[in-house]
Amino acid sequence: MSEIKDSAYGWNDSLAMSLLEKLKSDLKQAMLSQNTVAKDTIRQIMSEFSKITMPIVLSDTGKKSTRPKRAEEISNDDIIDVIRGLIKSEKTVLELTKKEPSPYLVMLESYLPKMAAADEIKAWIISNIDLAQIKNPMQVMKPIMQHFGKKADGNLVKQILQELTT
Questions:
Q1: CA 119 centroid distance within chain
Q2: Which single residue of 21, 68, 102, 161 could bond 17 by disulfide (Cβ 3.0 to 4.6 Å)?
Q3: What is the distance, to the nearest Å, from the Cα of residue 30 to the centroid of all Cα atoms in its chain?
């Protein structure tokens, strides 16, 4: 497992490349260095890309359908959703088999953006939202979640809002 943590695998927002570009680069690096955990993990992530679809309307019938997104249409958020799904299923398997976190899970988590800390969320809420004007704390969930995106856990934001409004 230390092999994964010490390596250059993983992604964060500060990199000058998209998550897809980083995955492709890391796959090449993993193949050259013969790192099977990294190679298999990245291939698993990329195999899920066919499930990333976008809605379309068929021109001849007007029926709504979907099609897989092309590589240039896949966003970081799409890939993050795929990785979160893989993490969720791996955690379920590990929980059912009562095993320790696997190198696969550690590798998957290295590609997720760093989550916003509770202090960071609280500071942003205090500086950007007038809590005296709201009746229900859930009214301001949308702008908070839009600001933080996938970096904030909705349950944590809800808990912070409840603390600030009571």
A1: 21
A2: 21
A3: 22
Domain locations in the chain as residue ranges: 2-109, 118-165
Q: In whole angstroms, what separates CA 78 from the centre of its chain?
A: 8
CA distance 140 to 122: 13
How many other CB atoms are found less than 10 A from the CB of residue 78? 19
Whether the CB-CB separation of 20 and 77 falls below 8 Å is answered with: no
Model confidence over 98-155: pLDDT tens digits? 988 889 999 999 998 888 888 999 999 889 888 788 778 788 888 898 888 878 888 8
89 conformational bin, left if phi > 0, alpha if psi -120 to 50, beta if neither: alpha
Which residues sit opposite 67 in a β-bridge?
54
